[in-house]
Specification:
Blueprint (H helix, E strand, L loop, with lengths): L20 E2 L1 H5 L3 H5 L16 H9 L2 H14 L3 H15 L5 H18 L2 E4 L1 H13 L2 E5 L5 H12 L6 E5 L7 H8 L2 E4 L7 H17 L4 E2 L18 H11 L7 E9 L5 H8 L9 H6 L10 E6 L3 E2 H5 L21 H20 L2 E2 L1 H14 L6 E2 H17 L3 E2 L7 H11 L4 E4 L2 E4 L9 H19 L3 H16 L5 H14 L11 H14 L3 E3 L4 E3 L4 H26 L4 E2 L3 H14 L11 H14 L2 E3 L6 E4 L1 H12 L13
Parallel strand pairs: 2-8, 3-6, 3-7, 4-5, 4-6, 10-12
Antiparallel strand pairs: 1-2, 7-8, 7-9, 11-14, 13-14, 15-16, 17-19, 18-19
Amino acid sequence: MASKAVYSHRDPMLKKRDDFEDMLEERRNSSDLRYALRCYTPVLYKGLTPCKASELKRMVLQSDQLRYVINQVSKETDMTTDEVAGEAAAILEEMAHRLQLSTVRFFAFTLTKVFKTLFRSICVNEEGIQRLQQAIHNHPVVLLPSHRSYMDFLLMSYILYTYDLALPVIAAGMDFMGMKVVGEMLRMSGAFFIRRSFGGDKLYWAVFSEYVKIMVKTGYAPLEFFLEGTRSRTAKSLTPKLGLLNIVMDPFLKGEVFDVSLVPVSISYERTLEEALYARELLGIPKPKESTSGLFKARKILSEDYGSIHVYFGQPVSVRSLAESRVNRSQFNLIPRHIPMRPSEEILSFVNDSAYRLVRAQEENMVLKPWVLLAFVLLQNQADGQSRGTALDELTEQAAWLRDLSRQYGAFLHWPDHIPHSEVVASSLSLHRGLVRISEGRVQLALEQGFAITPEEELLSKAVVILSCVSYRNQALHIFIRPALLASAIHSAASNRKQEIYNRFSFLRNIFSNEFILCPGATLQDFEEACYLLLKTGTLQINQQEVLITERGHRTLAFLTSVLDPFLQGYQVVCRFLCEEEGLAEKQFIPGVRKFIIKHLLTGTVRYIEVLSSDLQKNALAALIRLGAVRKIKGYVGTLKLNKVMLSSLEDTLEGKLPTQKSVVARL
């Protein structure tokens, strides 16, 4: 193992980021109608021959690849080729967008009114817009925004229209089609609708992939989709889905285009519209079905203040550059292009690595607001049993200390330096006043809601507030996760030998690779990055053989171990639950583990209310399946086979990693 950090030349403090401009400022001082009806002349892809949406559909239906699949399906199903072709046309009709500038203008006018009411500012990095404009002219472009709110894709189209850029065609889930009027308006503003899963539907996959590939090959319009596949209810980045990314890379890999530009976009909300909705979903309260009437019922949010939004358009990433020395494209010359083929292991590995790199690029350009750091402090103080809350001046000092630490770790922090810390903290607490209570100079989370009847209802009421705060804290986890893994490894290792600490780090990183964006095969790089950050900030001294904690490093190390504690306890409790089960159906897992956790939260043997999050529980189960402690039995739909010896061993190992709570499980 290397004795010196290889990341020293990538000091996050030296990372140059663009400045922002508030795009709402001009909207507040000019006519909304004139803005919506203005001359719109976007720069287009240099190789584009403009065509209508109907022409695009004709190209798909006449493509060699789709015709090949239609013939295959016809032979397999005894349907005539005309019948299968008719089915393909129906799928495409249901799927395809019908982008119309008149609908876009209507949305531009309406959204301007809404955004000016909801948000103080919408800040965009103009240099990123200029880079995007150049990319759109030179190559087919794929926009990859982070996904934390329903607002994301409306916001993206609004920004591109405002800056006179080509409007994107957006992959959207079928559930939006249930919104009738709004669903059709989304279609006419550039959305195309796809099923959440295709199963083994060969024809559907062929229509979908060919539709996307033809848009990429022709440079028809910037294509937009969410790498994570769905909205993150926790504000943590989700493990990327590879299907669409594989499709958009395919034209380059087959030599049909010179290059494709992938543009990661980071959207940061100071206050999320869906914060309480997400918290309830994570507690098992199902989300309301998307409907137009539901949209109008949500109009009451227009009376709320949601602070600011920051949208950062990252550096365009060239697929050609990514593939250089990674992919041998000659393999695609062996089979005619129109014959579908499964991606090789080499291609799957390449796409997977690229996806992780792109999600990390999204994370690095997320703008963190002061409330994110305050949520860290308030949650930790609540877990430590500070029932009377935290003195305001003490909270301010803790948040300012955390601000300095996060900046040293390379956080993109929006904390006004020209304003006293006390005013910054007061402003953040005011914006999020639904989650906090301030009384007699002390601040605490607003856990006493006053309408619960039973202890369980009271607990779930508190959990909504806790999980809402957790969603803000989670926005900064990518900054701290590698140092936190190292801190927990140091705390639990039997000695200060570097190799032993690396082994502990590797174990923890493996356990949590479903929970955080940790690139496959990068354990050593992550360890060295963590060592470098803790070394640079004076927390550790590291030599060839040993890792030593400095005198001033104890406070930092204590904070970093606390970052991982809720996840350690969550995974530990899941192991304990499974150890007590006999023959568990997969669909019984979430209700069963939730009931188990509620019981132990009420008796005080579990400390962190946030372990009630179904996201954490699902990630824990996925990790246990990956590690072989749980196995899905083939032939028995949804049945889990439990390796109780391994589960018990993992539970004991995780218990040893909980530095602040030795009696957490006390055999529960």
